[in-house]
Design brief:
The complex is a heterotrimer. Chain A is built from 27 helices and two strands. Chain A is mostly helical. In chain A, helix 6 packs antiparallel against helix 8. Chain A is globular and about 110 Å long. By secondary structure, chain B is mostly helical. Chain B has seven helices and two strands; from the N terminus they run αααααββαα. A two-stranded antiparallel sheet of chain B has the order 1-2. Chain C is elongated and about 50 Å long. Classes of the chains: A mainly alpha, B mainly alpha, C mainly alpha. Chains in contact: A-B, A-C, B-C. Chains B and C meet through helix 1, helix 2, helix 3, helix 5 and strand 2 of B and helix 1, helix 2 and helix 3 of C.
Chain lengths: 612, 185, 102
């Protein structure tokens, strides 16, 4: 069993290494190798999932040993790991195939597919890891590969800056995560997840709000939650399949997965804080999405909003529902990202939705599958999003009305901006050259779309999946099923998406090259567009507070470390050398005087002139 | 003043006088001759101290080997009296040397007057015991060559190996030095 | 031996050492410098033997043995260097061997 695990983990690393060492010039070979690797991972993962069934499997070995402190390298396969393993390997495989079509004309294919393999390696590492330190290592590797892939078009200023921004913002969150790990080790003397769980069950008083909030910093950074959400929209500068894989389906979901794995560490206060954070993120991101013109940025804000839903579900004490939504979201958001990739590819990298229009007739498969995604995310009845999202809403309604109101407003907005996106892109008349000449993409790109569309439709029926996958969700799903007010929620949920649809139809049904909101409600539109000035606030902080401090420290460093200590000690020894050099006169006789001086000193000491 | 004291005075005078004459003599050959006188006198002092073996070594090694080597080199290089050069002894250098010499003597007088720090009971000569070798545990002073050998090959085993190696290195070094000059020419 | 004490030997050895040092300092003929060095070593030897005798300890005498070994090696190497110097410079005076003087 551990050989299967190790193959899953090391296969993508091997592929990346081979690509790095031998295939840098042969982009097509590298692409095929990477896709084959993704396929192999999928096969191995399915084998592993069905082999372990419903049981928990753990395996570990010594990695690093310092005196009596030992770091273990281990795998923990339980229900959540199986679910995420399936999502990562399945969605990853589809996106690899899609990339074959999308990146066909790219010059740096080898770099792109090598980066994808590195990402698969790191993401699988997070999925399988059984202790926090190992998770942290792969956490950083995921951040690194995300940096690598965002910066794929590094010739453009936007991409290179976005990659730096993503990396730095993630580092801020990871710093908190690291502190959390240290605190955990301090408190429990272990970082192994299973041992932590049994320790907490043994003595629940060990957990503290500070500890779990520090660990949640990792989630906030990686899943782009408030206040570290600023990197995700910018990260859309990367290639679209990367956005689909990393910034929608898997990497940002890793934050939720981390929360699920350590949910026993959370206190009630931390949970309610997370619920509010998530719910307000769900609403706030919806407003931001409404103000965007770039198709990928709309989807990015929508991702933020859906991650907010997951965080809220977790905060409401329903981690299983959060994981359920993670799965369905991975399907329909990957579908929409890939659909937008197909559109962008067909329109020659035009991303402004006001320059699309009328694409439904030219790209019927893309339009149809995209519509499925839109319906799913809006929560249209009996599609996958309906089940997971309404479960969250129902849980919120029964537990915390404030959170429910925020989430419900977010749901209204979601359907509004999603239908806005759909209408502007696929309906009406073509509004630019690029969109009027667009053609349907190749089978390599449409096949993954169709598969994902099918999953987006049926993904919500958890009975269809084997219990090896969804077993971990059943307790929370059962809890939600027994909650009251079911019918009421169906009415409310249906009302939400219908209102959003009608509003979008009203504003955007006719198409149009200009934003209608801008004319009617300019103040509201500007507020949406400004994204609440977070980038400006951070920019002000960096330029007005951090930079002067850094300059001050630099002066101190120049003065004391570089000046006093480094140059100072060098100067001191130089001075000594200057003195000593005068003794070095190059004459034998002079040296004999040094010798006799030494002798005199020695004899003087012997007779006791310097005291006994 | 008995006979031994008289001998001490004679040898001390000869050793010092030889040394002083040596450093002031103009011709290297005469300097070497005075040096031999000084060394033989030191050998005599060793006899007075009952270190007979060392006295013989002193005569053989110093007066015999070393000084013959000196004389050989002097004659090989044909170095005459350094007539013009001796007068060029720098005043400063000589003065500093004399000052150092003076300081050294003052320190020596302190050591002699207040002997305790340098040697515990230096005012008299302890008698030699008959059996000088106590199982090699401590090396007592002895007149016999046997105890010398015992000391050298027990307690000073490593130093004597090193000394042998030093002599070998010196020999090789001397050969190389002589040879390189021949090659340069 | 009633009159002569180890202190007399000590004084004599100091004097020999000092005279040897004076020779090293004031003579410029390197042959004489080497001889003066031998004189200094003799002074040290004398002190060592007299301590050895006064303390009834053989270690001092054994050290004299080693000093003689070192002295012999030193003279051999020193004279070889001197010969080499003479062949290069046609001189055995120290001021002619001051290439490193600054």
């Amino acid at each position: 069993m551990e050989s299967v695990l190790l193959s899953i983990l090391l296969l993508p690393l091997l592929s990346a290494l081979v690509t790095l060492l031998f295939l840098r010039k042969q982009g097509n070979v590298a692409a095929l190798l990477s896709v084959a690797t993704a396929g192999g991972i999928l096969v191995f993962s399915l084998y592993l999932i069905f082999q372990t069934g419903n049981s928990t499997y753990a395996w570990e070995t010594s990695w690093l040993k310092l005196a009596d402190w030992e770091l273990k390298l281990g795998f923990l396969i339980d229900g959540s790991a199986r679910l995420l393993l399936f999502v990562v390997s399945f969605v990853g495989f589809l996106i690899h195939i899609f990339s074959l079509g999308y990146m066909a004309e790219d010059d740096a294919k080898a770099r792109y597919f090598g980066g994808l393999s590195i990402f698969m390696f790191s993401m699988l590492g997070i999925t399988l890891a059984d202790n926090l330190i190992m998770i942290f290592v792969f956490w950083e590797l995921v951040g690194f590969s995300s940096y690598l892939l965002i910066a794929h078009y590094f010739e453009t200023r936007e991409a290179s800056e976005a990659s730096k921004k993503a990396f730095i913002v993630n580092r801020v969150g990871d710093f908190g995560f690291l502190i959390g790990i240290v605190l955990t080790y301090w408190t429990f003397q272990t970082v192994n997840l299973q041992e932590l769980k049994s320790l907490v069950q043994f003595d629940p008083s060990l957990v503290s709000t500070a500890l779990c909030l520090a660990l949640a910093c990792g989630f906030i950074g990686k899943s782009a939650q408030f206040p570290l959400h600023v990197w995700l929209p910018d990260a859309m500068a990367g290639p679209t399949p990367v956005s689909a894989l990393i910034h929608a389906a898997t990497m940002v979901a890793a934050g939720i997965y981390l929360l699920f794995r350590i949910d026993f560490l959370f206190t009630a206060e931390a949970l309610s804080l997370l619920a509010f954070l998530g719910a307000s993120m769900g609403l706030f991101a919806g407003f931001c999405a409404l103000g965007q013109r770039d198709v990928k940025k709309i989807l990015a804000y929508s991702t933020l909003s859906q991650l907010g839903y997951m965080a809220a579900a977790f905060g409401l004490g329903m981690p299983g529902i959060a994981l359920f939504h993670l799965m369905t979201h991975a399907f329909f958001k990957a579908l929409m990202f890939l659909g937008s990739g197909s559109v962008i590819h067909a329109c020659h990298h035009e991303q402004d939705i006001f320059k699309y229009g009328g694409l439904r007739k030219k790209m019927p498969i893309t339009a149809l599958t995209f519509l499925v995604g839109v319906l799913a995310i809006s929560g249209v009845n009996f599609l996958s999003g309906y089940f997971s999202k309404d479960a969250i809403l129902l849980g919120a309604y029964n537990q915390n009305l404030m959170v429910f109101i925020l989430l419900y407003a977010g749901a209204l907005l979601t359907s509004l901006y999603m239908f806005r996106l759909y209408f502007l892109t696929f309906e009406g008349e073509a509004r630019s050259d690029a969109s009027s000449k667009a053609r349907e993409s190749s089978i390599l790109m449409t096949a993954p779309l169709l598969l994902l569309a099918a999953l987006s439709v049926i993904g919500g029926y958890h009975e269809l999946f084997p219990t090896a996958l969804v077993g971990v969700l059943l307790p929370d799903l059962g809890r939600v099923a027994t909650m009251p007010n079911h019918l009421w929620m169906v009415v409310l949920g249906t009302a939400a998406w219908i209102i959003g649809l009608l509003a979008a139809r009203f504003f955007y049904g006719k198409g149009g090259a200009e934003e209608p909101l801008q004319d009617r409600y300019p103040a509201f539109y500007d507020l949406c567009r400004s994204k609440l000035f977070f980038d400006e606030i951070y920019g002000f902080y960096v330029s007005k507070i951090q930079d002067p401090l850094a300059r001050f420290l630099e002066v101190m460093e120049l003065l004391f470390i570089s000046g006093l200590m480094v140059r100072g000690s060098a100067g001191l020894s130089g001075l000594l050398a200057l003195v000593a050099r005068t003794c070095y006169v190059g004459k034998i006789h002079a040296y004999s005087f040094w010798f006799i001086l030494g002798t005199i000193g020695f004899v003087a000491y012997a007779v006791g002139l310097f005291g006994r | 003043m008995n006979f031994v004291d008289l001998l001490f005075l004679i040898f001390a005078t000869l050793a010092l006088g030889g040394g002083v004459l040596m450093i002031f003599s103009r011709h290297p050959v005469s300097a070497a001759m005075f040096m031999i006188v000084s060394m033989v006198s030191v050998a005599g002092l060793f006899v007075l101290l009952e270190a007979f073996f060392l006295a013989i070594l002193q005569v053989l090694v110093y007066a015999g080997a070393v000084m013959v080597l000196f004389l050989f080199i002097i004659m090989l290089l044909d170095v005459g009296p350094d007539a013009g050069k001796t007068s060029r002894v720098k005043f400063i250098s000589g003065l500093a040397g004399v000052v150092c010499f003076g300081i050294l003597m003052v320190l020596c007088l302190i050591a002699v007057v207040d002997a305790s720090p340098v040697c515990g009971s230096c005012s008299s000569w302890p008698a030699l015991s008959e059996n000088s070798l106590v199982n090699g545990q401590s090396l007592l002073f002895s007149t016999s060559v046997k105890s010398f050998g015992f000391g050298l090959f027990s307690k000073y085993m490593l130093p004597i190996q090193v000394a042998g190696f030093l002599l070998l290195a010196a020999m090789v070094g001397v050969i190389i030095l002589s040879k390189r000059v021949a090659l340069d020419r | 031996m009633e009159y002569v004490t180890p202190q007399h030997f000590l004084l004599l050895s100091f004097l020999l050492f000092g005279v040897g040092f004076l020779g090293v300092v004031i003579r410029r003929n390197l042959l004489l410098v080497l001889m003066s060095l031998e004189l200094m070593l003799n002074g040290v030897n004398l002190a060592l033997v007299s301590f050895s005798r006064a303390g009834l300890n053989l270690d001092g005498s054994l050290f004299v043995f080693f000093i003689m070994t070192v002295a012999a090696a030193e003279v051999a190497v020193g004279l070889a260097l001197l010969v080499a110097l003479y062949k290069k410079r046609r001189s055995v005076f120290s001021e002619d061997a001051a290439l490193l003087q600054n």
